[in-house]
Structures are given as structure tokens and as C-alpha cells.
User: What shape does this take?
Amino acid sequence: MGKVTETKRAKPFVKWAGGKTQLLGTFRQFYPAALHRGEIDRYIEPFAGSGAVLLYIMQQHPVREAFIADVNPALTAAYTVVRENVEQLIDFLAAIEKEYLPLNEKERRKFFYTQRDRYNRMVVEGEDSGARGLKRDRRDVNQAGLFQFLNRTCYNGLYRVNRAGLFNVPPGSYKKPRICNAKNLRAVSQVLQRTTILRGDYRDCARYIDKKSFVYFDPPYRPLSPTASFTSYSSASFSDRDQAKLAAFYRAMDQKGALLMLSNSNPRNTDTGDSFFDQLYQGYCIHTVHARRLINSRSDRRGLISELIITNYIPD
Ligand SMILES: C[S@@+](CC[C@H](N)C(=O)[O-])C[C@H]1O[C@@H](n2cnc3c(N)ncnc32)[C@H](O)[C@@H]1O
Assistant: This one.
């Protein structure tokens, strides 16, 4: 398989909190040598999000198949539609883009709320499968299309739901949002033909992880301070206890002989004495990298934020 050029490369089709596009260049030096040598059969990403690393690796390296999981059902459903029904999805997005872009600001807001209601009605009806009027495929395409429309036009591309599971992010104010990028969607669909999409907990990936696997874990980051901005990816958040359970899972997968890489926030950005991850991942390689984000807006505390990459191998 030849390496793909920048222009042809499939990129994430959703904006996602914690997306790794900015860090792809930095990550390259931390991938295992076996990946470069073509010795990895399976790439596994148990916290898929927008799949920036998945798309990069599956196009740059000769990996046979991929497995991704995410606990967010709207996101995994969108992945499935991109894989199975990309042309119908493109038609849906092209039509909604044509309707949305010519509207003025006031009309756009109104249109956004109408589509948000429509999307939320589909979410509720979907839970009661007897209430489905449309054919299953059509319904899934419309729902995934609305999910992408909302993602592109809502405030900061956030994904947030209320207790009832209804999407409640307000409209954003982008001048010309790219709602339908047909070329990219087709390229992503190509990669997904070799990808198994799992809706649910990261542990569901365990059965696919073997000694010819490379696994990249990108869990919700541990907040740098109790007051740090709370990014809710789904209705549940990820506590310190969850981080500890994930570390136990990492050890179990290490026992299987898989190559593992994990990223997280560096608590030392705000508390130099905080050894939370050093304890959880004792015995593994803990690397510090700099992200292109500022630590906070207070000028007296400004500085580039660092993040952790934890591997169970010594990178090249
Ligand atoms: C930091 S984001 C991943 C970002 C991704 N690497 C990217 O480039 O967009 C974390 C993801 O983990 C998902 N998540 C949270 N808890 C999870 C769990 N228990 N199992 C699987 N996925 C989970 C969230 O829905 C979110 O999409």
C-alpha cells in the first residue's frame, strides 16, 4: 500500500473536543518501530472521538484492519453511516448546506433550532423502535446527517447532551461552515471499510487485542484542577477512579503482548508535586510533549501546556 499524499488524505469528519489533528506530527516519533516495519496487523483505538489518529495510521502504514470504540452512540452511528451509506449521506448534507448557507444570521439561528429539534425527536423515537416511520437506512442517514450539520454549525463544535440525552448546544456563528465535504467523506469511508466500529465501553476492545496489535488510548483527559473547564463528551464523565481502572486495563493488555500508547494531561502543569500518572503507570515509559495550547488566559500564568504520552515500549 503506497503512502497517501496530503491532498488525498482522509481527515476527521467531525470537530471533536480533544481532537488530535494538531498533535499528529508530534505523535509520529512515539509510534512503535513495528508499525514502521509493517509488523502490526491491527490498529485499535478504544476512545475514537473524531478518529484523527485512526485515519492517519490507516493511510500511512500497512495495517490490515482497525477496531474503534466510543461510548457516544451518536458518534458511532455517524461512523457506521459514513462507512455503509456515504453517497446518501453526501446527498443529505449537500441539500442542507444549500438551504443553510444563503440564510441571514437570524434565519440561520431559526433553522439551526428547527434541525436540532428534528434531530432530538429522532433520538427519542429511535429509543422506541415501534415509532419509526422511515425505513431504517434512510432514518440512520438523516440522523447522522443532522448530527454532522449540528456539529459544523453549533457553538465551537461542542457535543453536549442534557440528562434526557438530548443535544442542547446553541448555534455558533461561522460565516461559511463546511457542512458537506464530499471528497473527504468518501476518503474516510474508504478507510472505514477496514474498520470495525464498536458502540460502547473501551473494554469491549479487549477481545480484539493481541500481540500483533497497536493500541492508542485517548481517554477524556484528567482535569488539571478541580475547576478546570469541564468537557462533557457524553452524559457520563471520567473520574480519577476511571483513570485508575483504565491503567489496570492497560496493564492487562500489556500482558497480552500488545504495543500500547496512551495520552493524557500532565498534572504537573499546575501542581509540580502531582504524581498521579507516575504511580498509575509505574514501570512504563512516560514522555512529556508540548501541545500548542496555552495553560490559561491569566497572563501571569501563561505558558505552553504539556501533555503525557505513555508507552509500553521504547520509541525508535
Ligand atoms: C479525548 S476524546 C478522544 C479524541 C480523539 N482522539 C480525537 O482525535 O478526536 C475521548 C473520547 O472517549 C469517549 N469515551 C468516554 N468514556 C468512554 C468509555 N468508557 N469507553 C469508550 N469511549 C469513551 C468520548 O465519547 C470521547 O469521544
